[in-house]
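Tokens as discussed.
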């Protein structure tokens, strides 16, 4: 059993790479989805699939590497590491996108959406719209590395939270015969 624990980081990196590639491909759909609504819908659907993918990889680690048994703590650490490695790989793609490709596209699209909401004249929305405008100005002031670090920390945080129910479902103690 202790031999299997030595493989935890190795397999967390391995499965985290697959998860990170999935996140990168999924992220490509987000800016495209701002102009093509179906792609945004697909992005949301694929995002909802992330916990199931994490469960699948944790279960595969339990069955193939740990011999069918894993403690909660070991499953949680494996899943956190897997999400952390996926977030690191995805952060590279985020930085490349926001540094070289985006050029303010996402912020400008959200601002245009805000302006169309203003023209619709929805009553009672003025305080929300002003708050949204202030948020957009703060976001415009962020550098690509700031945005990337924010998304990295967000992915690691949410991955740590998702790891708890995943570890609870994946854990399996040795059956006493």
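Sequence:
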């Amino acid at each position: 059993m202790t031999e299997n624990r030595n493989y935890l980081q190795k397999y967390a990196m391995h499965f985290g790479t697959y998860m990170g590639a999935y996140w990168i491909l999924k992220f490509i759909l987000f800016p495209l989805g701002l102009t093509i609504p179906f792609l945004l819908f697909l992005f949301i659907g694929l995002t909802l699939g992330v916990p199931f993918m994490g469960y699948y990889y944790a279960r595969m680690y339990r069955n193939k590497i740990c011999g069918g048994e894993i403690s909660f703590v070991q499953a949680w650490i494996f899943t956190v590491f897997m999400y952390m490695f996926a977030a690191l790989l995805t952060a590279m793609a985020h930085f490349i996108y926001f540094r070289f490709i985006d050029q303010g596209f996402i912020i400008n699209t959200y601002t245009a959406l805000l302006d169309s909401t203003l023209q619709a004249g929805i009553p009672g929305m003025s305080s929300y719209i002003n708050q949204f405008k202030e948020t957009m100005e703060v976001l415009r002031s962020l550098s690509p590395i700031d945005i990337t670090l924010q998304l990295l920390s967000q992915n690691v945080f949410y991955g740590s939270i998702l790891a708890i129910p995943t570890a609870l479902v994946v854990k399996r103690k040795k059956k006493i015969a």
